[in-house]
Amino acid sequence: AQSVTQLGSHVSVSEGALVLLRCNYSSSVPPYLFWYVQYPNQGLQLLLKYTSAATLVKGINGFEAEFKKSETSFHLTKPSAHMSDAAEYFCAVSDTGGFKTIFGAGTRLFVKA
Amino acid sequence: GAGVSQSPSNKVTEKGKDVELRCDPISGHTALYWYRQSLGQGLEFLIYFQGNSAPDKSGLPSDRFSAERTGGSVSTLTIQRTQQEDSAVYLCASSLLAGDTQYFGPGTRLTVL
């Protein structure tokens, strides 16, 4: 069975600081991995996804994530936080068929001026 | 419309009543997913449809929940004899093919009194 663990339900950073949101997964088959973002009062949208090509995946708005099989991790990073990055971020995993997607509990990112 | 639409946007019902939630996916998308987002929790997978294949119902929490997708397009999620713990935001998503990027609707907020 697949599962996703997001470490930290809330993360607070200062504007301009590094953003690091942690995600660990378990999967019995090579996974597809996703980060979705939910801005206040908006629907979920895809930030980036890993589908067994390059292990470093670049997404929208300057975010990127690195797939590390040995650590079963897919942490999301951004070098410099912006106020507009404040949102809730969800890590998700699906099997290579992509049929069933399991989401983590989410991490709410706060950005301080 | 260009995106996934859901109706109603809000639904308040009394315990024990049945409710129907509707999802209109993006035209041409073969895969459709239902999720539940409870307060402070991540997205809980409920069910997905892929083309004409039998749906994966493994995430439905009880036999009070059912869903259908007519003509490979519109889907309806039905909750019978609603309970207070059914209160949540119900999200629908569609993708061109299983494993592709999922596009989410705005959700239906269900409140069971």
Amino-to-carboxy terminus distance of chain B: 33 Å
Q: What is the CA-atom radius of gyration of chain B, in angstroms?
A: 13 Å
Shape of chain A: globular
H/E element sequence of chain B: EEEEEEEEEE
Strand content of chain A: over 45%
SS-based class of chain A: mainly beta
Task: Please tally the helical runs of chain B, counting DSSP H or I stretches of 4 or more residues.
Answer: 0
Helix content of chain A: under 10%
Percentage of residues in strands of chain B: over 45%
Number of helices of chain A: 0
Describe what you observe in this structure.
The complex is a heterodimer of chains A (113) and B (113). Chain A is built from no helices and eleven strands. In chain A, strands 2, 4, 5, 9, 10 and 11 form a six-stranded mixed β-sheet that branches. In chain A, strands 1-3-8-7-6 form a five-stranded antiparallel β-sheet, with no helix packed on it. Chain A is globular and about 40 Å long. Chain A starts with a strand and ends with a strand. The mean pLDDT of chain A is 91. Chain B is mostly beta strands. In chain B, the strands form two sheets. In chain B, strands 2, 4, 5, 8, 9 and 10 form a six-stranded mixed β-sheet that branches. Chain B has a four-stranded antiparallel β-sheet with strand order 1-3-7-6, with no helix packed on it. Chain B starts with a strand and ends with a strand. In chain B, 36% of the residues are buried. The chains are: A mainly beta (113), B mainly beta (113). Chains A and B meet through β5, β9 and β10 of A and β4, β5, β8 and β9 of B.
